[in-house]
Structure formats: structure tokens, C-alpha cells
# Entry
Amino acid sequence: MSNANNPLTSASSALWRSEQMQRRIAKRQVRDRRFKRLGLTAVLAAAAFIVVLLSVVITRAIPGLSQAQVSLEVYFDPLVIGATPDTAATVAGRTAIVYANYGQLIAEAINRRFADVSDPDKQRQLRTLMSPGARAALRRKVLKNSDLIGTKQSIWLYLSDDADFYLRQRARSVEPLPMTSLTTKAATWLNRLQDENLTRRSFHWLFFQRGDSREPELAGILGAVMGSFLTLTVTIAIAFPVGLASAIYLEEFAPKNRFVDIVEVNINNLAAIPSIIFGLLGLAVLLNVFHLPRSSPLVGGITLALMTLPTIIIAARAAITAVPHSLREAAMAIGASPIQVVFHHVVPCAMPGIMSGTIIGMAQALGETAPLLMIGMVAFVVDVPGGLSEAATTLPVQIFLWADNPERAFTEKTSAAILVLMLFLFAMNGLAVYLRNRFETRW
Amino acid sequence: MTHIAEASPVQSHDNTVPAGPTAKATARAVNVTYGNTRAVKNVDLDIFTDEVTALIGPSGCGKSTFLRCFNRMNDTIENARVSGDIRIDGEDIYGATINVVQLRARVGMVFQKPNPFPKSIYNNVAYGPRIHGLAAPGPDLDQVVEVSLQKAGLWDEVKDRLDQPGTTLSGGQQQRLCIARAIAVNPEVILMDEPCSALDPIATGKVEELIEELRGRFAIMIVTHSMQQAARVSQKTAFFNQGELIEYGPTADVFTKPKHEQTKDYIMGRYG
# Structure
């Protein structure tokens, strides 16, 4: 049997049935199985990480998506508002309604509720239980319906973030963290309100309707969502056509010479440049030279487009190279001009790959913070941006800002914003996959 | 580009066609080099409208490269250089006034591997007429598509599924679709580069019948590795070896009484 390994001297039947050969085959099979197990483990580990990430974010975000409210009997005092239902339609009446001291109405209402509290210092503490947003809510109500003036209404108003946090802790029967600014006295007041069934928790719609705020219970994500949307619109409007045109030119038309080689190498290098450098470029060129509006989606979008371009170019070139040469020949042989060959045949065929590259590039751009910090998109922006030149911030920057905020309630807002960012990403990718499937040509 | 006018049989004093069988296309002193390699060496050849010309020879002998000179497909290869004089109806196709894009419509080509566009059967055929503006979209174009598919012998098989992708057809049907696509733009010459090498015998038989039917309407040049096929479909045969045209004559003569030793050896199957 010692010769059984030598294919030249042993009979083939002996060669393939020898013990050594059996052992060798068994060894190979073991390797196969080991590799498959390793691969499966890797996939499961990756999936587990994603599940952990998602569950952490979601469990943290859920408290941020609800908000505690209290029911107060508010008397819309015509003397405080300075208008009556009859004068509300006049200019003076309307001005009075807009600038009225609604804080006083709330203070009166809460003092009526806690008639036993007479010490002015304690009364001030009582007022801090209410969110500053309650005043705005009252103003909105009166502006909408001036007949309320002179009447007494039971109205659900937002509690402050500290009160909200305390009530949530109480519901879970956990001692409130010392971080809250609530006094023991305030806590007993809240207990009373809750025990009298005058508080409730409801879905925090305001979070999706507003821009940023210093008060966590009034801070919303809509400003950042709009900012991200506008910024990415600019990014894709620039990066996709420029990237596609560059890729097509380099693959299909560029002469093979040193200059083109240098361009190609540098495009690959650009893809590896840290994103903050692009931010510096945006600052130096777009803001300082061209004087484009600071912290606007326009500048952010252009900066991110510069960052995304190499990714799109590299992916599009790979997709274009992968189009079989026989297709180009078929089109050329029928008399299609070079442009017709490219746009009728090569690009449609390469579109799925180009879209994949674009998705990756846009996902990168969506999650990017660093370059936006350099061009001032880190600003505190209260208004929801409505145009490309208005001050805006984006989702990741908003998350960064909130995560940086020492107030306890902002941590929940941070998680909720992360959730929104991920939903935004899923929506974007879903759209891209849908478009890709629509454009995909059956081969 | 060297012009060897006196060698061209279609050249008369006033450039009009002389009496007798006239060549549709003429090649004189054609050389093709890829970098330092000479793939085609000094080839002279005439092809005629009512004949099928077969190019045979061992692999790498330059017959496909020579074929691709007629629609200037070699231009698309990075380092290929073509010299010599190639004329279609007396017109120098490498001349300064020639539009390559238009030339490729006039000289159709069918490739070794069927390469229909990843579009519907209808659009595969309609694409050429559409980009050249040969037929108005609508009934005119429908008519061109139908006639082309009929000429290619494919109409009856696909008339009920014109909107399906051309790639869903069988290999032989795809190749006939490619032929339909080529003839839809009404070319003058059709070049076929081993059109049957990827097909089974039945599909091959259909394509060969088709070539026979197309003969007379178009000047056809076909590169083939099958000597039986050359014998079946062609009237003239050119034998290439190592870039040179060794022998060119009526197919029957080349196969039954070859003048050159090399031709004889190849036909007898001694090499290649």
C-alpha cells in the first residue's frame, strides 16, 4: 500500500480506494464543515449585534415618544388676555391675544388647584411643574377659538420634563434619580395630581411636528428630518449625475494616457479621505470664497456630494465594466453611435450596480456628522427649514447635539432621534431597492 | 492608408461600374496589426452580392480580424491598426468622408455567440430602424419588424410573444433574431463570425437555410470552423493561414482540387 499514493505506479482502483486517500477525503470534508460552521457563526453574530442594537435603541426611545400631561381648569380671563370675543377680530384684539400673559392664566389655574399652597416661593415651585409649552398651547387655543375668552375650560397641558420623568419613575415604583430638580414637596403635589386621575400619558405628536428646543418636552425632530431631506436632495442631485457622467467618461470614452491614470488613482484616494477634510473644504471654499449661506442644506449638500462622489464613481465604473462586451459590439454593429451604445445599452444594464453604489454613498452621507460641523450645521435651529438656504441641522447632528445635552430627558430624545434616523435610512434604501428592481433588465 | 487604385477591379476611369460580375466589396493589400503582431498580411479579396464567401482556416489565422475590417469593428480595439484599401461599391470605407456609425448599419454583423439586447423581441429588431430613422414608429415600424423576422424565418415562432425579452429564446432562435436585427436596417453586406459555433445541429441547419435564402439580396461573408458548413453554404471559399490568404476560389474547386499544399493539408484535416 505504500505505493498507493503514486498515480504513476499504482493501479487506479488501488489509488482511489487506499486508506490514505480515504483519510485525505475525510480531512477535506472536515475542513468544508468547519468553514461552513464558521460562516454561519459569523452571520449569527452579526445578526445578534443588530438585534441588540435595535432593541436597545427602541427600548430607550419608547419613553421619549410619550409625554405626561395634566388636566387644569383654566379661566380665560378677559382682563389678563386684554380682549373679549367681541374685540378678538380687531387688530388690537388680535395683538392682545398674541402677546397676552398666558403664564399668568396657568399660574392662576394651578393655584386654584392647590389652594392650600400660599407661600409665594412654593407657588413658584408649583409653576415649574408646567412646561413652558403650556403657554403656547393656550395661545394656540385662543387664536383658534376666541369664544373661549371669559370661559372656564378643563385643558390637558404638558408637564415639564422633570415632572414627566418623576411620574414615569413613580409608575415603575423606582426612587426618582437625584438628577431631577424636583423638590420633595413638588413630588407630593405630582402624587396628588396622579392619584386624583388628573394626569395622563399620550403619544408625543409634538416630537414629530417641531424643530429643536431648549425644553426636552418641546424639542422635536421635524427640523432635523427636513434638514436631512433637503441636504440629501442636494447631495443626490449633484453626486449622482456628476458621478455617473465621470464613470461613463472614464470607462467608455477616456483615452488611455498618463493624465487619465492620475485622475483614476486620485478618485480612489478621495474615497479614503476622512470626511472632516471635506468639511474643511466646504468651509474654505463654499463659505469663505463663494459666501454661500452658512449652515444651510445647500452648503451641507454640496459638501456631502463631494464626499459621496468617489464612492458613486467607483461603484458605477465597476458596474459599467461588468457589462458584457458582446452587448456593446451588438449595438455598435447595428450602427449605434457611441452615445447611443452607452445610454441605450450599457447604462441600463449597469443601473442595478450603479444604484447599489449610490445607496451606499447616500447612506454614508445621511449618517455623516463631521463635515457638517465644519460648515456650521451644528447650530441650534428652532425653526423647521423650508428652503435650501435656510439654517438647518441634520439628523445625525441633532443626535450629537442632544446626546451632548446634560438634561436627563434629552437622552430619550436622542434614542428617539436615532430611531427616526434609522427609519429614514430604511425608507431611503427601500426606495432605492424599488427603483433598482424597476430598472433591472432581465438578462 | 495606402490606396492601390490600379489593383481594384471596380475602378474604371470614371469610377462607374464596368460590365461583367462586379465586386460588391474589394479588399486590397489589407494589413492588420495588434501592437507588434501582424494578424492579417497583405490580403486581396473581392466579394459579390449573389455569393456567399466563406473564410476558413485554423484558429488564430486572422480570418475573423479580416472580416471585422469590413465594418471597421477593429477600430474599437485599443491597439489594432488597419492599413490597405477596402471599398464597398467603389467607396473607400476608411476614407475621410465615411461615417463609421452609418457604415456599420450598411454592413451588418452577426457574432459567434448570440447577443440579443436585453430588450423585447420587438425592440431587438426595431432598434436599428428606430435609431437610423428608417421607419416611423407605429405601423411602419411594425411592418419592418414583421418582414425582418419573416426573412429570418423566426416570425411564426415569435409572433405571439414579441413583447417578451429576446433573451428568453433558445440559442438558435436568438441567433436568428440577431440576423433579423441585422437585416432590419437593410444592409448591403452581412458579416457572420462563426454564427453557428454555439448552436446545435438542428439550429445550425436552420441558420444555414437562412443564409441560402438571404444570398442574392445581400453580399454575405461567413467565417466558419466547419469545413462542411463552408462547403454547404458558400460559393467562394478563402483559406487563411497565419494571417495570409493562401487560396481563394470557387468553393467546389477549393475543396476538391486545392492548388496549394497548405489548403490540401487543412482540408484533409492534417492540422488546424
Q: What stands out?
A: The longest helix of chain A spans residues 19-64. DSSP finds 18 helices and three strands in chain A. The beta strands of chain A are 66-75, 152-158, 199-203. The interface with chain B takes residues 256, 324, 326-337, 340, 344-345, 348-349, 441-443 of chain A (CB under 8 Å).
